[in-house]
Amino acid sequence: MIHTAEVLIILLQFLLLVTAPLFLIRALVQIFSDRTDVPFVRTPRAMFPAIASALDIQPFDIVYELGSGDGGFLLWCAERYPNAKFTGIERNPLLYRYSEWRKKRSGRHNLSFVYGDIFSEEYAAARKIYCYLLNPVMDRFLPKLERTFHGTLASRAFRFSTKEPERTVELTSKKGGHGEHLLHIYDFS
Ligand SMILES: C[S@@+](CC[C@H](N)C(=O)[O-])C[C@H]1O[C@@H](n2cnc3c(N)ncnc32)[C@H](O)[C@@H]1O
User: Fold this and answer.
1) How far does residue 173's CA lie from ligand 1's centre (Å)?
2) How many structural domains is the chain composed of?
3) Ligand 1 atom closest to Cα of residue 42
4) Fewer CB within a 10 Å sphere, N or C end of the chain?
């Protein structure tokens, strides 16, 4: 006869087996986040349609994401806008490899991920940019944008301190502590 204690131990072992790899992956992503200016926090999938619509992505647009994380937003866009081109720049090697793997699995050819620093890349070809960074990082990035970028930038939650957004839209009615429910749209044309 199986005792309750034995059932509990089996259940605990099962739980450990399932959750341990998830904890390990999370820890590894955070360790590699030390090399980046902003830690990895994913934009929820439910917000993708509103962000794409605010960016007004056109059939032959060229769209960049600064710090593309797990690649989720650009993969979603690349499927819905097959003639537009999408580029994600990511400095966390684990996240970069993971997005590359997801891209290959999706079979999409209108999408590329660059393993690099957003401050070292060129944006003259870009027409739309999405980012979810932090205020100081955006401020450091502003001079480069003003010199080289001509288009629309959408930033979730965070703003430039010396440039006003054209408009701000609500991505969800549930308010976040840092304004994560807001998307600020900037015009660099
Ligand atoms: C808050 S997360 C947002 C991830 C993704 N954009 C999203 O919305 O789901 C910020 C991302 O920027 C990346 N990052 C931070 N500093 C970077 C840098 N200097 N160059 C490239 N990527 C960077 C981080 O590794 C992280 O994946």
Assistant:
1) 24
2) 2
3) 9
4) N
Residues having CB closer than 6 A to ligand 1 are 33, 36-38, 40-43, 65, 67-69, 72-73, 89-92, 95, 117-119, 132
Name, in order, each residue with C-beta under 8 angstroms of 39's C-beta and a sequence gap of 6 or more: 30, 33
Cα(44) to centroid of ligand 1, in Å? Answer: 14
For residues 27 and 68, state if they share a domain: no
pLDDT averaged over every residue in the chain: 92
Model confidence at 32, in pLDDT bands (50, 70, 90)? Answer: low
pTM for the full predicted model: 0.87
Q: How many A from CA of 10 to the centre of ligand 1?
A: 39
Instruction: Report if residue 132 sits inside a domain.
Output: yes
| Same structural domain, 107 and 176 | yes
105 and 50 in one domain? Answer: yes
User: Domain of 179: which CATH number?
Assistant: 3.40.50.150
Q: Quote the ligand 1 centre to 36 CA distance (angstroms).
A: 7
Q: Tell me the residue range of the domain where 84 lies.
A: 45-187
Q: Are residues 118 and 27 in the same domain?
A: no
**Minimal CA–CA distance to 88: which of 52, 55, 63?**
63
Residue pair 141/119 in contact by the 8 Å Cβ criterion: yes
Counting atoms of ligand 1 from 1, which one is nearest the CA of 131?
6
